[in-house]
Amino acid sequence: MATVRSNKLPRWRVVIVDDHERSRAAIRAAIWAAGGEVVGETTRSGEALHLVKQSSPDAAIFAVGLSDGDGLEAARLVTASISCPVVLCTSRTGDDLVERARIAGVMAFLLKPLRPAELAPALDLAIARYREAQALRQSLEDRKVIEKAKGALMARFGLTEDMAFRRLRKAAMDSRKPMVEIARALLVSESVTREAPA
């Protein structure tokens, strides 16, 4: 009998980093049952970063204790260098672990033994929090660019801060582009003008 495959996209694509087969099997089954897809598994902390880079998942689930090292340290390396939220799966809790997880950039916890009904909300929450944090980070970066462009306009044309802001906003509205794009273009133009030979 032929198996019918659905063309529907998975709810999430997930990497599992856990050295206990029973734990991985439970996580894997819960992901599949919730409409997700497991795109990679490893039992070693040393392979986690490469695996997450290679598979580009929506989230990664890490165990704390791994046979070759600290799962939290491996999670920290992932959150520091790759766009991927991490969910920690652990049988123990405590203030020290929570603090280490916070520093490592962990977005949510799952307790072992895994209750399958808890997996989907934990992954959904971790992914939503991660996207909010990314959006906030981008917004702060955009604000810095706009502030720098305002400063360049103020210095070049002797404008007040309000006048410089209004000039950027008008250029953005006239060109129907985000203000940050106008600010970046202005800063590039300023840079080229400064570096042009006399």
Task: Provide structural commentary.
The chain has seven helices and seven strands, in the order βαβαβββαβαβααα. It has two domains: 13-114, Response regulator (Rossmann fold), CATH 3.40.50; 137-195, Winged helix-like DNA-binding domain superfamily/Winged helix DNA-binding domain (Arc Repressor Mutant, subunit A), CATH 1.10.10.10. The N and C termini lie far apart (78 Å). 60% of the residues lie in helices and 16% in strands. It is of the alpha/beta class and 198 residues long. The protein has helices at 21-33, 45-55, 71-81, 95-104, 116-157, 161-175, 179-195; strands at residues 13-17, 37-42, 59-63, 65-66, 69-70, 86-90, 106-111.
Provide keyphrases for this structure.
2 domains; Arc Repressor Mutant, subunit A; alpha/beta; two-stranded antiparallel sheet; 198 residues; disordered N terminus; Rossmann fold; five-stranded parallel sheet; 7 strands; 7 helices
